[in-house]
Design a protein that fits this description.
This protein folds into two domains: 46-158, no CATH class; 176-274 and 282-345, Sandwich (Jelly Rolls), CATH 2.60.120. Helix content is 8%, strand content 41%. The two termini are 34 Å apart. It is built from two helices and 23 strands.
């Protein structure tokens, strides 16, 4: 076994009869604060989380709504109430930046009962766009003044430069979402390809339109009623990340005979390579029937079935994108197919 030990810092702890100094408590506070700041940045990044909307309240007054932000050090800044900030003494036609930052002031009292504390402030500041900003500031809005030094009535406040806070990419995976967000139906119009015409047992092709497919009333020409139905197959275009297939569906408006919809999982599987070079990987085509839906009632239909195995089917379990999904539909007489579907989860 091999391992490498990487320092993550020192966590303060205490023992009985230990003499504690102010630095010991400060170190403990800083440890917890830094851990919280790292969590904020690691999960969310920094920027405006909610609220803090900036609006023009008058020629020289801006309004900032209540809200919450995290600065680039991971520190939380909350305005519990709406605030106003006046635009005074600034150059005409200026472009300004409204920012939000944290400031703190140390208050220490000496004497028989010495004590100290920090007063923390949220600081709203208007500065010229080219001027140096507050340390670790969060930009809320750009403000444009007219030739009279007033906030422009049109386009006076813009969100340019404002950074919104979202979940950091990769911090939450699909598996962490609520079940109702990880599971749902993918339904598509049936646009089939023709079954192998060299096989004389295969029925004629479907006629495919933009939203459905249907068997020809007459085939191979208008003088001969179609007594062989129709057949076709189609591949599903599935989004990445799907891990399980739960149910399958077929629906349409017309059926005069029997419709059989067979769903298959295809792709490739790894096999033992032949020959001397055993280091090279080898693959072979795979095909597994997952579900068969039979519709034998006349008229319109919509039918859902579970897999033949009776339980959900693992899909792309290797994570290498080696699985595909397709459907083959055969109708013995005139029929139309509006949709095929599969219920998936991530």
């Amino acid at each position: 076994m091999s391992e490498s030990r990487i320092s993550l810092g020192r966590q303060p702890t205490y023992v009985d009869n230990q003499l504690l100094m102010a630095t010991d408590f400060i170190e403990a506070q800083e440890f917890m604060l830094h851990a919280r700041h790292r969590q904020n940045l690691g999960l969310h990044g920094w920027g405006v989380a909610r609220g803090l909307e900036v609006s023009r309240l008058g020629d020289g007054v801006l309004g900032v709504s209540s809200g919450f932000a995290i600065d680039e050090q991971g520190r939380e800044i909350e305005l519990e109430h709406d605030h106003r900030i006046e635009v005074l003494g600034l150059d005409q036609g200026s472009q300004l930046v409204l920012t939000l930052a944290i400031d703190k002031v140390l208050h220490a009292q000496q004497g028989p009962s010495p004590h100290a504390h920090f007063d923390r402030f949220a600081v709203l500041r208007l500065r010229p766009a080219g001027a140096e900003g507050q340390q670790h500031e969060v930009v809320l809005a750009q403000v444009h003044l007219d030739h009279q030094g007033h906030i422009r009535a049109e386009g006076g406040v813009s969100m340019q430069g404002r950074r919104s806070l979202h979940l950091r990419p990769g911090s939450v995976t699909a598996r962490a979402l609520a079940p109702e967000l990880r599971r749902g139906w993918i339904t598509v119009a049936f646009h089939p390809s023709r079954l192998n015409p060299q096989d004389k047992n295969n029925p004629p092709p479907f006629h495919a339109g933009p939203t459905r497919a249907w068997a020809y009333e007459h085939y191979p020409d208008k003088d001969h009623p179609n007594e062989r139905g129709a057949g076709g197959s189609m591949a599903f275009q599935l989004p990445p990340g799907i891990r399980e297939l739960h149910r399958f569906k077929v629906a349409g408006e017309h059926n005069r005979g029997t419709i059989t919809a067979s769903f298959f999982k295809g792709g490739v599987v790894e096999v033992e390579p032949e020959g001397r070079d055993k280091k090279e990987k080898a693959w072979k085509h795979s095909k597994e029937k997952l579900c068969e839906i039979v519709v034998d009632r006349a008229g319109s239909y919509s039918k859902v079935m579970y897999p033949l195995s009776g339980k959900h089917v693992l899909f792309n379990a290797s994570g290498d994108g080696d699985d595909t999904l397709g459907v083959e539909i055969r109708a013995t007489s005139f029929a139309s197919v509006s949709l095929v579907g599969v219920e998936v989860s991530y």
